[in-house]
Amino acid sequence: MESMKPHLLVIGASGQLGSAILRRIAIEGDIAATAFVRSSSNYQLPSAENISLHTGDLTDFDSVNAACRQKVSHVIATASSIVPRKGDSFGIDDLLFYENIIRACKENHIEHLIYISAFPSPFDDQVPEFVIKRQIEQMIVASGVPYTIFRGAAFMDIYFAVMGSRAVMQGVGHPTLLRGYWLSRLWSSLTSGILEKYGIALLPGNGKTRQSFICIDDVANCMLHAVNQPGLINQIIDLGGPQAISWREVADLYGHLLNKKVMKIPLPIWLLKTLEVIMRKGTPAGANMMSILALLGHYEFTPDMSQLTHQLQIKLTDSRSFIAKKLAETKL
Ligand SMILES: NC(=O)c1ccc[n+]([C@@H]2O[C@H](COP(=O)([O-])OP(=O)(O)OC[C@H]3O[C@@H](n4cnc5c(N)ncnc54)[C@H](OP(=O)(O)O)[C@@H]3O)[C@@H](O)[C@H]2O)c1
């Protein structure tokens, strides 16, 4: 078959990951993309000739189908309502979103659906978001649409902010934590900058659990590199950063780079789990956040990335370089 230049539909374009993907497409300029955005979104499309806008809503199949009909060859999907915007409910519509995406992919013979999921653990059933992600994965796998599913580790941009770093959110157009969900906004308003200003770091669990944190730009890069990679078709791939590092070690990196003594405040698992139970009924998104923090505080997800980085010919950013760059870009 003749190989055509890909045209991507980026679903979740106004989110922190989706907008990073589009920024990269705008800079590289060699592939075309359509950003799928809700009319209520205040998203600013990067001004680049190769990027266009399609207004729609994932709960409305016709709008997804209309977007796919516009010469789209590949779909990159990052959308979710896990951190809901005002007026949205946590997770309720996510299965419908992906039913609609998959149906539109089938009807329009989309060559490749690339989806970001969450890292696997033996405790998936304890995290509502992970239960939803696994269901979406199953729907994609069963659909017959060629797919690549990345199961992402904790994003540096999000979780270093949760620890108290302001620098990692500085200059980000659409930070997930400030999307409008009251608890993530409250957490941010109480803690954003305490790491840089006062040298205080909040650590899930006892802080000794290691994670392969990955930065959002690297996730975006991997998802884009998956386009036209036959070796990644119909694969579920664990995706993490280049090194396993504990929360305490992340706090120490900030200490070294800021030349400050850092006080490490553990968030005990029992506290996170208690908060989760308290929030379960009234604010499921908050309960989900607590259950993820509890999981990240006791379960290590540290995949070996050597095969993927070799296959895609990419280099992943380590935590020290990421933090150093963010601090250098930030006026504190
Ligand atoms: N944070 C982590 O460490 C981590 C790790 C692994 C995987 N992930 C996954 O990565 C994905 C992307 O994360 P992110 O930070 O970019 O998320 P995000 O900032 O919360 O973005 C969510 C996106 O979904 C869109 N969306 C929600 N409802 C929609 C609807 N009805 N129709 C159309 N679009 C809709 C939002 O649009 P609006 O702007 O209109 O609301 C937004 O663009 C998420 O699924 C997350 O679970 C995250």
Automatic annotation (TrEMBL):
<dbReference type="GO" id="GO:0009523">
    <property type="term" value="C:photosystem II"/>
</dbReference>
<feature type="domain" description="NAD(P)-binding">
    <location>
        <begin position="12"/>
        <end position="157"/>
    </location>
</feature>
<dbReference type="InterPro" id="IPR016040">
    <property type="entry name" value="NAD(P)-bd_dom"/>
</dbReference>
<dbReference type="InterPro" id="IPR044256">
    <property type="entry name" value="HCF244-like"/>
</dbReference>
<dbReference type="InterPro" id="IPR036291">
    <property type="entry name" value="NAD(P)-bd_dom_sf"/>
</dbReference>
<keyword id="KW-0602">Photosynthesis</keyword>
<protein>
    <submittedName>
        <fullName>NAD-dependent epimerase/dehydratase family protein</fullName>
    </submittedName>
</protein>
<keyword id="KW-0604">Photosystem II</keyword>
<dbReference type="GO" id="GO:0015979">
    <property type="term" value="P:photosynthesis"/>
</dbReference>
<dbReference type="Pfam" id="PF13460">
    <property type="entry name" value="NAD_binding_10"/>
</dbReference>
